[in-house]
Amino acid sequence: MKKVTGLLLLFIGVLLLLNLNVAHRFHTESTQIKPGTLLLMADDWNVNNWYKYKDSFEKYGLKLTFYVSHIHTMDSMRLAKLRVLQSEGHEIAFHTLNHHDAQKYVQANGLQEYLKVEVDSGLALFRKAGFTTKAFAFPCGSYASAYFPSMRQRFQTLRLNNFPLHQVPYVEDSVKFIQPHNFMFSCFALDDAYGFDQAKLSSLLEEVQKGETVALLFHSIGEDSPWSMSEANFRTFLMLYASYQVRSETVSGFFKNAVVDCSGSMD
Ligand SMILES: [Zn+2]
After folding, report:
1. Beta strands of 9-120 (E only): which ranges?
2. Handedness of CA 215, 64, 193, 206 (dihedral sign)
3. How far apart are alpha carbons 229 and 196 in whole angstroms?
4. 107 CA → ligand 1 middle, Å
5. Is 19 part of a structural domain of the chain?
6. pTM of the entire structure?
7. CATH number where 170 lies
8. How, if at all, do strands 247-248 and 213-218 pair?
9. Residue 161 domain-assigned?
10. Could you tell me the residue range of the domain that residue 196 belongs to?
């Protein structure tokens, strides 16, 4: 009997230790979330380019979030391609109308004008074109917390990032989502300008495999621009993604499914 009790206590002890370890790993800014997700995001207006690679996204089970600006300049073919991407499980998220630096725009024109032109008029075109997104990203990583209340009335998640634009070599950065709690994840930009680093990418995917959530960002694939990821690097990314057997999710999909424990949240 003593032996059984001892074994039982040992079993409970092991369970407690495992639980502590898991709780530690899943901890993200005072909030517990569902673990092990890759958030792959592409920004701006490179619709034809993204569409060219949609079969690869599908083959590898990747669900991307495309943060799109300049919808008013897109012809019906591009809009149709975005709709196909959305129907295949990707998210078409909003990245303002003209991709202005928000702080500069607000300084010159005021917040109400920013909301009217850059947000609401663009969002109306988005809705008319069939996009149901609740996710937003500030262009150029430019924002001020004074915009948040108005923006939160319009979107469920606001993406804030401070990528070292035009800074070479790449410096590790993070991305923050407000929705309404603050989530901060490691983020790695895949564009050539940042200096693609296979070892760094591997270590981040390993973190995802262990239960962390990591965000990756690019603008396009295989274009002759520093703000594009080379075709070879894209293939390397796909190979690594498959070898680590992690899962990817859209931003809204991730937060919808995230198990949020707000106890101890600081915001
Ligand atoms: Zn952008």
Report:
1. 27-28, 31-32, 37-44, 64-68, 91-94
2. positive
3. 8
4. 19
5. no
6. 0.83
7. 3.20.20.370
8. unpaired
9. yes
10. 28-257
Distance from residue 157's CA to the centre of ligand 1 (Å): 16
Q: What is the 225 CA–ligand 1 centroid distance (Å)?
A: 15
DSSP state of 41: E
Q: How many structural domains are present in the chain?
A: 1
- Distant-in-sequence, close-in-space partners of 95: CB < 8 Å, separation ≥ 6: 43, 44, 67, 68, 69, 136, 137, 139
> Mind listing the pLDDT tens digit for each residue in 136-187?
999 988 899 999 999 999 999 999 875 555 455 455 577 888 876 788 888 8
267 located within any domain? no
Q: What's the CA-to-centroid distance between 68 and ligand 1, angstroms? A: 8
- Which amino acid type is present at position 258? A
> Does residue 108 belong to any structural domain of this protein?
yes
Cα–ligand 1 centroid distance for 226 (angstroms): 14
Decide: 248 and 37 in contact? Cβ < 8 Å.
Answer: yes
